[in-house]
Amino acid sequence: MKLHEIRDLLQCEVLAGEDNLSVDIHQVVASDGMSEILAFAKSKELMITGLTNIQSIRTADIAGVSAVLYCRGKRPEKKVIDFAKEKRIPVLVTKMVMFDICGVLYNRGLKGVS
Amino acid sequence: MAVELLRESYEIQGKNYDKAGEVSGEIKVLLRDLGIDAVNMRRVVIVAYEGEMNVVMYAHRGTLTLVLTDRDINLEIADEGPGIPDIGLALQEGYSTASDEMREMGFGFGMGLPNMKKNSDEFRIESEVGKGTFVFAKIRLNANA
Ligand SMILES: Nc1ncnc2c1ncn2[C@@H]1O[C@H](COP(=O)(O)OP(=O)(O)O)[C@@H](O)[C@H]1O
Ligand SMILES: [Mg+2]
Fold it and tell me: What SS3 state is found at B63?
């Protein structure tokens, strides 16, 4: 699924990487624990988290995920968004909660990593 | 004998959460520029990042040294800090002495050292309580080629 399809499906606002939404997403890794993301991400997935500090983008960069989606309408500070732009990681935010996001994406055929 | 190609040392400041992870980010850029393959680069930066976070969270200061040879990448992370009283326990998944502040940053679930070990071909911890901790990790470059 393309990232822009995910944006439309979850009614996301795009905070970074507007010109980068044609990237293909096959898998999802979802957690508020950064070590868990690092343990399970195999690179190129969508990372969904409720953690909006600078470590979320650092972790995304280190894990090599394709994009970050913040849930529950949580918006990071500007410096976090700037950092994501510098690292060329698209960032989206949706008002939906984690459980609902995962349900919608799962129904559309996306799978978690394990 | 392995031939040493590059040796780079980075300072890590304890408790500086704003900078936490900068060293590992720099190492990622360096390894990518050197043309290290994606799989090995990923293993190295995960080990570096978890190791760096541990120095930031638990120690006063530390040094991360990256040594690239024609066969492998070695990470040596030495810190001045409280040390680890029971290394076997610290290596168990889920064991953590992290504070609430650290958990709020998304760390402190007791998966850091296990993640580091899993991504290394050789992994060793030495520690002296009240002095500091030394972590060594080797990632072989041909292991996943
Ligand atoms: N450099 C260090 N200095 C002192 N204690 C450490 C250090 N690294 C790890 N520890 C101890 O080992 C425990 C487990 O570490 P780790 O597996 O990285 O999990 P976490 O950092 O999430 O607690 C830590 O909670 C801490 O008590
Ligand atoms: Mg840790």
Answer: strand
